[in-house]
Amino acid sequence: MPEGLSQNHRNDIADQYAGGTVHLLETTLADDDGAGDLDANSEAEASTSDSDWTITHDNAAGTTVLENADAINFGTPGDITINQIVLQSADDPDNLLLDPDPEGDTELDAGDEYEIPEEGVEYTLGGE
Length: 128
Prior knowledge:
Layout: H1 7-17, E1 21-25, H2 35-41, E2 42-47, E3 53-58, E4 63-68, E5 72-73, E6 80-82, E7 84-88, E8 96-99, E9 106-108, E10 115-116, E11 122-126
Antiparallel strand pairs: 1-2, 1-7, 3-4, 4-11, 5-10, 6-9, 7-8
């Protein structure tokens, strides 16, 4: 995220992701991959609403943080190793926020339930 964005601009960016769909991936996507690659590689997904997210600002640091305010439940996604969590924009499905290291790789066995706890996903916009 480029430095120098105002709080309003950072907030506008964060707003488009609040209420988006969260995907669990075994295969890592790149920043320029779009919805088609995401759909082909998503092992599990969970829809969220705007109220599932909080947006906070630190103007001294020039950052805005988007964080899940509620747990995100994926049920039993199957026998997978999660190595990336992707948040897909609610406004434009080609816009993605990538978490390339979600608390390290998480291995799930068939039948295991998976839930991201409250405040378990955080995206920082702005800063360095």
